[in-house]
Amino acid sequence: MRSHAQTAIRLLLLCLLPLTAWAGIGEEAARHLLSRTGFGANPAQIALYAPLSRQQAVDRLLDHTSDKALTAPPAWVNEPFDRPGKPNLTEDEKKALQKERNEHAQELRGWWLEEMRITPSPLTEKMTLFWHNHFVSGLDKVGVPQLMYQQNVLLRHQALGNFGQLLHAIARDPAMMRYLDTVNNRKGQPNENFAREVMELFTLGEGHYSEQDIREAARAFTGWSLDKDFQFVYRPNQHDNGDKTIFGQQGNFDGDDVLDMLLRKPQTARFVTIKLWKNLVSPTPNEADIQRLSALFYRDNYEIRPLLRAMLLTPAFWQSQGQLIKSPLELTVGTLVTFDLTPPDWRALAGLNRQLGQDVFNPPNVKGWPGGEVWINSATLLTRKQFLDRLSHDAAPIRNSFIKADGQMDEAGGRQARIQRLIQAGLRPIRLQPDEWAAIYHVRNAADSARLLLAVPPAQALPEGMSGAQAIAPLLLDPAYQVH
Amino acid sequence: MFQRREFLKAMGAGLLVSVLPNLSYALAPAGYQRLLILIELKGGNDGLNTVIPYASDDYTRLRPAIGIPRPQVLQLNEQVGLHPAMASLMPLWQHQQLAVLQSVGYPEPNLSHFRSIEIWETASASNQYLGEGWLSRLFRSQPVPASFAADGVVLSSQNLGPLDGGARAVVLNNPQDFARQAKLAADQQAGAHSGALSHILKVEGDIRTAATALQQAPMKAPANPAEAPTAPPRAAGGFAQAINTLADILQNGTRIAVARITLTGFDTHGNQQPTQARLLGELADGLALLQNRLQAQGRWDDTLVLSYAEFGRRPRENGNRGTDHGTANSHFMLGGRVKGGLYGQTPVLAGVTDGNLPHAIDFRQLYATVVQDWWGKDARALFGGHFERLPLLRA
């Protein structure tokens, strides 16, 4: 009797398996994919991806990308600007110039955060941010917001493009050239800053080059300079034409030769693959996957899209829920995306992220944000919680008015209420609307809410009988909301 | 001959006996009751323009544009002196509570900011990769009493450095805000959680512990400056603010073993002089303020201050009136029980062209001195080898 029952269950499971495959990855996996490849996961997007297979979902994601921002940049980005250190300025003029630069820097941060929130291609922004944290430059040293904007355009253009092309382009990028002192690197007076970091942080990683390789590579980059308008210019009289010995090869190399030598080393593919894995999958890459993926990356001539596709299709990716700590931007912008919110002032949100340790356009140093557990200490965790507490505190009162008698949600009622509110009140966009959100996305109970908001079960059990709308606040403040 | 030696031994023993029962030492706080304050000079301070070998012709040869002119140097002896912006440290030097440590470094030095500060903060060898800070490692094997508010507090940085990877450390910018906000870290049931989530839960636990301790020590009114033995020296800016925050929480009876304060901006590849002068001024004024405030609390004798940085800078200036990454560096140790004076080796600049300087003191010798002689803990297993302690401390 008992074995009959077991057989029956097995048969039933066998029947269900293809059904599961047909039924798609489901809400949890869709939330996982969106959250890792973008910022948060809006329930409407979750519904779009849940019925797809893993492959369909990843292909859909990669087919809907862009290489340009949708948000219009501030007007000044393409206007001419004064060089920092312009001579003969009075103190007042210097102060005014500094004030203007600070305002521009704030607007620039706000512009990018808004793009992260509204973009139809979150993966593009996620990867642009990844490259910003790889090819690090910072406003503190670059000084000119226009140059940081130009670099951001470059990073976005190649975000899903080709790593080799990006490496060559970033070496000639004016912001990078100022940030890592390429502009100060002259024949007879080499400055090793760029030569060191291009090996340590951009391509090979520590331990794969010698101090001599750095010294000689610095000589190869001499003559790379900026003209009076801060555009790249090659100055032959500043270039060191002597022989250099780099990685055991001797020749009159220039900067592009050095970059090509770095790209010819498989270690570069491996280094970048591991970094991307730690960003998208888990803090502990497994060697077999890394070997396979980095070989593919190298073979594909550093094309980024196939690497991403292969990485997102590893079983390890789909089993990695909750293994990463959300970055400040994933937490803050992600929460806005999840709840269809728009803050009244993007610069303020940028300020919050700076407090949380992620000041875009100004990473802490050339190594960028280390991420992971470093995001969380007593100060940043409390600031994160204050932000979430404030959101739920300021939320509209919960009346559970869209729960129907059968426990289902009145979606039409919720949408109607949202439209009414937007027509009447207009500008209260930051205010969370738990009832409407629950109605529109069919969040019937606390379990539905947890499935849309958390990657792992809440650390604190929710009280019995909470509605989906009521569960939002405790779930946002649960420690589990900090991971994805 | 034999008798004479025996006699001397007996004399020596007698002398020791009469010195040993030092009452003040016996009553003084011991172990982690004694405070260590680490000062991080982030970016890699230029030690050669901080503790200046002003009498050396090679110094002026290597530093034609950015050398400090001899008349401006605050002389410590006929060879070396301090940067002119550090005048507020001179009283400590005169009272022999300031140890100037020259040529501090480690073998096979690494010239990357990140790797080198990691070596210093994990106290690893140059080719060794350790995941946790050296203080976390110490506190794991020889824990700070659970009654303490935290193992350590971190000021002016979000990075836990030597307290990373396990120590109970809180980043404290404003104590009142901290106590209020800590309510958001609710009690959680302990349970099996994944790495990422367990880290969040641990930090929530640290927050609650620190907040509870800070609440039990109600804020006293700040000491009346007029009653202080000497008026506090001029000190402004973020560093002084961090010093004041630290002095405030200590005044309230908050117990911690370590504080780490970061002063940043020392990566002076270009136009070094004005930047370094400003930073060294902030440093010296801030340390004088610290001494002043802790003296007023009667804690200065139980406080040890030690500076550190990822590396020093290259002896020869670069073409941008700045200095590039170097190796051995000058550092400071100060406190009521510090035996002031010069330690280590004044940099030998003769024959130096583009090269870097060798070290004379391994930084792990300083850590071993702190662990063993300051805290009375066992330093032997901490640093993967034997590091000779330095006679830097009075009983």
UniProtKB/TrEMBL annotation, chain A:
Record's keyword terms, sorted: Signal
Signal peptide extent: 1-23
Cited Pfam families: DUF1800
InterPro entries linked: DUF1800
Protein name per its UniProtKB record: Uncharacterized protein (DUF1800 family)
Organism annotation: Aquitalea magnusonii
Automatic annotation (TrEMBL), chain B:
Originating species: Aquitalea magnusonii
PROSITE patterns membership: TAT
Name used for this protein in its record: Uncharacterized protein (DUF1501 family)
PANTHER family xrefs: BLL7424 PROTEIN, DUF1501 DOMAIN-CONTAINING PROTEIN
Taxonomy, superkingdom: Bacteria
